[in-house]
Amino acid sequence: MTDLPQEPGAEARPMLELRSIAREYRRGAERIAALKSIDLTIRAGDIIGLIGPSGSGKSTLLNIAGFLDNPTRGTRLIEGKAIDAAAERTLEHIRRDRIGFVFQHFNLIPVLSSIENVELGLFWLKDKAERRDRARAMIARVGLAAREQHRPGELSGGEQQRISLARALVKEPAFVIADEPTANLDSASAAAVVELILSINGTHNTAFLIASHDQRLCSQLPRRLRMVDGVIHPELETDSELDHVRVA
Question: Distance from CA of residue 56 to its chain's centroid?
Answer without folding.
Answer: 17
